[in-house]
Design goal:
The protein is mainly α and 314 residues long. Helices cover 80% and strands 0% of the residues. Helix 4 packs antiparallel against helix 13 and helix 15 packs antiparallel against helix 16. The longest helix has 31 residues.
Length: 314
């Protein structure tokens, strides 16, 4: 895919942000509506998208690539955690933000934004690999990730093992498990089931982008762009995190393949919305988390195409 095609495909994906932005600004799309749409994606459309994407002819090459997805993404996560810890200490971040900085650098929006972008650019095989990246995130997010948020919380509220298990037992994660099981066993869903599953999954991208647009409508631009730590989060998540992935990919599997592209692109996604949700739950710095999510979501419209073009030319 050439530079023009990449820019065109990403423009088509991101332009769907505009209706959400406009409707929210005019009070038509309320918080209740977006919460309902988020639940619809989480519980129905996202799992269907993943299952549908994994309905491919079995290939040992693709299955063998799965181990690289998990191992390299784990490497990205662990490297990013170490780097953010060093930067937090060097920048002298307050205790209420240091754990959050690590969380925001490590965990990106690989589901709501990552899969739609991969689907628009590269098709079902890319979504297959992207879903495995997202599943890897889930495992780390509801274990190490929660402890990072708790370390930044004023009350230091400790999560229970049941909270972690409940976090992992989500429809998105189950969608990956079901899709992978069907793929490995060579089971193809009959058209009477597979057709509706594909149709439902196909609405994930527009719904997700509309929700992103509604969140961008809530930005107070003056406050957002005057926070120096928000710029730090933006630089680390959108530039450094995919650079780490690119280095690991180049070392272990080489560049130029769809797998390599997916791994780097998923690492380039903006900060996960869960950073805000968890911050509210555990009484951490919600404002810091919100600014990180919104600024990286806004700026990724520029950085994602740049990385996509870079990957096609190295």
């Amino acid at each position: 895919m050439g530079t023009v095609e990449i820019i065109t495909a990403l423009t088509k994906t991101f332009i769907i942000i505009l209706p959400g932005y406009i409707l929210k600004k005019n009070g038509i799309l309320t918080k209740e509506y977006t919460e309902g749409m988020s639940s619809l994606i989480t519980y129905i459309t996202y799992p269907c998208l993943v299952i549908s994407a994994m309905q491919m002819e079995f290939s040992m090459r693709v299955l063998n690539n799965c181990k690289y997805v998990v191992l390299i993404f784990m490497g990205v996560i662990l490297t990013a955690m170490l780097l953010s810890k060093l930067i937090a200490r060097f920048a002298k971040l307050p205790a209420s933000q240091s754990g959050l900085l690590t969380f925001m650098l490590v965990f990106g929006n690989t589901g709501f934004i990552g899969l739609p972008v991969l689907n628009g650019l590269f098709g079902h095989e890319a979504v297959f690999y992207g879903a495995l990246c997202d599943a890897s995130y889930d495992v780390f997010m509801f274990t190490i990730g929660l402890s990072l948020i708790q370390s930044s919380a004023a009350g230091e509220k400790k999560g229970r093992i049941t909270d972690t298990l409940k976090g992992l037992a989500n429809p998105c994660f189950f969608g990956v498990i079901i899709g992978l099981t069907l793929y490995i066993s060579g089971i193809t869903l009959p058209d009477i089931i597979g057709g509706p599953v594909q149709s439902i999954g196909s609405v994930t991208s527009p719904l997700a982008m509309i929700i992103v647009g509604s969140h961008l409508a809530d930005i107070r631009f003056k406050e957002l762009f005057t926070s120096k730590y928000s710029y730090l989060v933006c630089f680390l998540k959108l530039i450094i995190s995919p650079a780490i992935a690119l280095i690991l990919v180049k070392l272990f599997i080489g560049t130029g393949s769809l797998l390599a592209t997916v791994l780097v692109m998923q690492a380039a996604m903006p900060v996960a919305m869960c950073s805000v949700i968890f911050s509210e739950q555990y009484k951490a710095d919600v404002s810091f988390a919100t600014k990180g999510v919104l600024l990286t979501t806004l700026m990724c419209i520029i950085t994602i195409p740049l990385y996509a073009i870079l990957l096609q030319n190295i």
